[in-house]
Amino acid sequence: MFNGVVKFKKDGIPSKRVLQERDANRLLAEVHLMEGFCSESDKILLPGMADAIHRDVVKYWLRRYSLFSRFDEGIKIDEEGLFSVTPEEIAKHQAAHCHGACTVIDAFTGVGGNAIQFACMNLHVIAIDIDPKKIEYARHNAEVYGVADRIDFIVGDFFQLAPTLKGDVVFLSPPWGGPEYIRAEKYDIETMLRPASGFSLFKVALTVAPSVAYFLPRTVDLDQLSQLSWVSSPPLPYEIERNYVRDEVKAVTAYYGKIASQK
Ligand code: MGP
Ligand code: SAH
């Protein structure tokens, strides 16, 4: 909870307004009120954020403690990090699913939501992101959780680095196209994933490790997830699960190879 001054820009001119977070709805209503007050492109600086964020992203900030339970201990996160980070409860569960692995390659690390939970499970993590700021924030956040020594951080493009990498599991949580991904009724991994098609990304991941975990939108085409198992011969065992936070489905994780439960 906070009672604070929220800074934003009106027509490019810095302005501020006192907001009271009595509850999440009230803050959202206040932000909504600003709509006539600050233009579509204006951003809002909220407590605990290093950078200002667009008002459509405020909903993710309101759930900041479900993203990082230690948010108030100095977690660093930017706008993309805020809407992309895997909620802590889900990241913990995914890490537990990969038990038995020694080295996990987190190909799209972001601000470290998954890398930190893998390291908390005592796995060695190779954490890659193309954006140097994400890696700076991920390293800092791993220090907050006391696990930075179990993670090797690399700034780079996963596709270019792949031939130099080897591990037991590759964890894939690529950009889905921003929060607007939800506008499409069904999420097509072939055409909607960035920076490459979901199939080609999966094939590259299999050159790095025999098991792959794929974090995808809850609207993903489940037939495509089963087709992925056929890129290998014999087909890979796989398992698909829905991921929930407080009874709300947030995403889907598909596990391929040894990490899939053999039911
Ligand atoms: P969401 O689907 O955008 O919102 O993000 P939500 O919580 O369903 O909003 P509501 O208003 O419908 O309730 C849900 C979760 O998906 C986020 O917390 C992230 O963990 C993950 N996520 C969302 N996006 C847009 C991305 C993305 O681009 N990449 C990755 N890797 N994860 C994302
Ligand atoms: N799982 C992460 C969120 C990942 S968001 C977490 O829990 O924090 C997706 C990330 O992929 C973004 O940070 C983006 O910078 C990164 N990215 C995009 N293209 C990439 C590429 N070619 N190689 C490596 N990282 C990439």
UniProtKB/TrEMBL annotation:
GO terms for cellular component: Cajal body; cytoplasm; nucleolus. InterPro entries: RNA_cap_Gua-N2-MeTrfase, SAM-dependent_MTases_sf. GO terms for molecular function: RNA cap trimethylguanosine synthase activity. It is found in: Cytoplasm; Nucleus, Cajal body; Nucleus, Nucleolus. Keywords: Cytoplasm, Methyltransferase, Nucleus, Phosphoprotein, S-adenosyl-L-methionine, Transcription, Transcription regulation, Transferase. It catalyses: a 5'-end (N(2),N(7)-dimethyl 5'-triphosphoguanosine)-ribonucleoside in snRNA + S-adenosyl-L-methionine = a 5'-end (N(2),N(2),N(7)-trimethyl 5'-triphosphoguanosine)-ribonucleoside in snRNA + S-adenosyl-L-homocysteine + H(+); a 5'-end (N(2),N(7)-dimethyl 5'-triphosphoguanosine)-ribonucleoside in snoRNA + S-adenosyl-L-methionine = a 5'-end (N(2),N(2),N(7)-trimethyl 5'-triphosphoguanosine)-ribonucleoside in snoRNA + S-adenosyl-L-homocysteine + H(+); a 5'-end (N(7)-methyl 5'-triphosphoguanosine)-ribonucleoside in snRNA + S-adenosyl-L-methionine = a 5'-end (N(2),N(7)-dimethyl 5'-triphosphoguanosine)-ribonucleoside in snRNA + S-adenosyl-L-homocysteine + H(+); a 5'-end (N(7)-methyl 5'-triphosphoguanosine)-ribonucleoside in snoRNA + S-adenosyl-L-methionine = a 5'-end (N(2),N(7)-dimethyl 5'-triphosphoguanosine)-ribonucleoside in snoRNA + S-adenosyl-L-homocysteine + H(+). Its main location: cytoplasm. The keyword Chaperone does not apply. May form homooligomers. Interacts with CREBBP/CBP, EED/WAIT1, EP300/P300, NCOA6/PRIP, PPARBP/PBP and SMN. Catalyzes the 2 serial methylation steps for the conversion of the 7-monomethylguanosine (m(7)G) caps of snRNAs and snoRNAs to a 2,2,7-trimethylguanosine (m(2,2,7)G) cap structure. The enzyme is specific for guanine, and N7 methylation must precede N2 methylation. Hypermethylation of the m7G cap of U snRNAs leads to their concentration in nuclear foci, their colocalization with coilin and the formation of canonical Cajal bodies (CBs). Plays a role in transcriptional regulation. Belongs to the methyltransferase superfamily. Trimethylguanosine synthase family. This is Trimethylguanosine synthase. It comes from Ceratopteris richardii.
